[in-house]
Amino acid sequence: FPQPDRTGSPVAQLRAATKRYGDLVVLSSVDLAVLRGEKVALVGPNGSGKTTLLKLLAGDLGPESGERSWGANVTMAYYAQHQLEALTPRLTVKQEMTSIADRETMPIVRSILGAFMFSDDTEVDKTVAQLSGGERARLALAKLLLRPAGLLLMDEPTNHLDIESREVLERALSEYRGTLVFVSHDRRFINALATRVVEVGGGKLDSFPGSYDDYVEKKRKEAAGASRPQAPARPSAPPRPERQDRQAEARASRDRERERQREQQQRKTKDAERERKRDEAERRNVMHSRLKPMRDEMVVLESEIERHESRVREVERALADPATYGSGDGQRVKDLQQDHAYLKLELDRMMRRWEEVNRSIEILRLETEGGR
Fold this sequence. Notes:
single chain
């Protein structure tokens, strides 16, 4: 996928921003700075203000007070469900993509469409009006990533996507070198992408560095600490200054070591996950490349079988017609009988080949599934 131009940092910033709907204050004097290269997940219950926060960053909404700013050289793209309705129904999938392609991206239009499962001519020649909701979502995402902006804002991008499409999007966004702010309820998707989690609720923002699992663990520890009864403090003699310094240094050293081990484990986990996804993608690509010629042959065989069966029925009707024999044309009867014998032989040959190809496809599928 193409990569965006480098931007200034912070890429987007809110300062003391307040947004209300009538008497309902959704965001109250919030501050948020999104740094270059961050992938920020917005989480919180429905109605907490996540989409409103995205719209403030995008400029679709203005704050009642406070201000919003973007960094130098920032271009922004905003993906939400209403983007699906912005597609042009009369255009084909390919036309919809090429309508925004330039000289540099035109050669990769088919590659990006293929990555989002629009892989053959039948699929790219469908009109937008013929697409399902999931197919429209895939097309809108493909358009977004054909000319990526330095700042991507995405509201529930995995809605309507099947597992394969979700993995394609996840891979593309993992490799994306720009800045991403997104809303999602898909915990696996957040874990794969987020470098920071921002909790939205009660009109406030609370920021947690790391993945969704890191965020959940920190919330759990906070909840456990709040529920633990506080033991009465015992009077103790103040430690001597030199001992206090040694204790503080030892604690700091232990904390640094724990943080190093945690980061190392996170890297290993992410590396293993990326390797697993690469293996799965490679298996899918291999299977597709091996299956395509077989499927193409099946289409040709089925068409030929249907044509021969139709011809056999015509010959059999002629042979069953008394007029064929009453005409006194013995040669025609002989020709019809020879045609019938030849067509039956061809039908038998094609049916055997159809069964062989079908069996090969099933074997290949079983082999691929067995390798997972």
